[in-house]
């Protein structure tokens, strides 16, 4: 909850660098285990089937199959007992919670392979609206205001945003085509 | 237990319940805590056995209010201590010996730094008029076997003459439906997890009576022995 005093208390316990992973990922969770005096690391590897909560209350659920028996562990995201988390494989999933995996076994639990582990396709995603805007501006803006195709991305973007509202009734099929 | 009113051992304060969250202890396990914003409080009055009051106590005032929102008696009472701002809440703490604290001295969460266990007193959330199942955990009546419209009723409340000493009347204190909550509740022996002196916060393990924002009184636990080292 956005209570400043509570967030102040929680901030001291938050993980310094956030764990980055998504639902559907195959992960190795390195957990600290204390046995008497000794401390060792145990790895729990499985599929992340759910993430929930915000702030310090956030948890995630990892599911794996051990001896033909489904095992799920719920980890607090900010637990200091989690030494690190490795993403072994990303998956393409269309749900935030993969509870449907509980009813499936064997091959049916496979998930579509997602992007490679280090995603670097952020700029590519940005370019699409820009090219769309530049191609759309000559057609759309000409009837309304001639000095529209200025060049820089920011101005054309704003111009298309303004003109698209005006030209929608006449140029609707062309807009959807692009 | 051993509150003798010296500033080092005295641990009692007024505060407001902020809400609940969780923290991690040194072993990395999750500890559910209630955050209480406590103090700083002013000692508004000191009572002594030798004085006209006849018993030892200190009175704490908490939370400033505007003078025009207060009453003249309260304003005058607070001015005697040297702190001009009138207070919203006052509570008196009985002490076993003559208090060392003097009127006008401040009490804040740093008094709790060596404290391990606390008692918390608050006013529980009001639940309104409730039946016996919710109010007294009665079992109610069977769901079936011919029970009609009596599933949550208390059943018999005592025979006419059989109730010893209460012939032809319902026993006093018989558990029945009625108002639940909105009463003083003391939760004892809660572990004090942390003290934040900058923000005047106490982190108390577990739940504390009342709604968020409610007034609570926190004191050193009365029945829990403090560790001998401290």
What does this structure look like?
- The complex is a heterodimer of chains A (178) and B (230).
- With 178 residues, chain A is an alpha+beta fold.
- In chain A, 30% of the residues lie in helices and 30% in strands.
- Chain A has helices at residues 4-11, 122-141, 153-177, and strands at residues 26-35, 38-52, 59-66, 69-76, 82-89, 91-92, 112-113.
- Chain A has a five-stranded antiparallel β-sheet, with no helix packed on it. In chain A, strands 6-7 form a two-stranded antiparallel sheet.
- The longest helix of chain A has 25 residues, at 153-177.
- The two termini of chain A are 43 Å apart.
- The model of chain A is unreliable at 120-178 (pLDDT under 50).
- Chain B is mainly beta.
- In chain B, 6% of the residues lie in helices and 37% in strands.
- Chain B is built from two helices and twelve strands; from the N terminus they run ββββαββββαββββ.
- Chain B has helices at residues 72-79, 132-136, and strands spanning 12-24, 30-38, 41-47, 57-64, 87-94, 106-107, 117-123, 128-130, 178-180, 184-196, 201-205, 215-220.
- In chain B, the strands form three sheets. A six-stranded antiparallel beta barrel of chain B has the order 1-2-11-10-7-12. In chain B, strands 5-4-3-6 form a four-stranded antiparallel β-sheet, with helices on one face. A two-stranded antiparallel ribbon of chain B has the order 8-9.
- The longest helix of chain B is centred in the first third of the chain and has 8 residues, at 72-79.
- Chain B starts with 11 loop residues before the first strand and ends in a 10-residue tail after the last strand.
- The A-B interface holds A 1, 3, 5-6, 8-10, 12-13, 32, 34, 56-57, 76, 78-81 and B 18-19, 21-24, 27-30, 33, 35, 37, 196, 199, 201, 203.
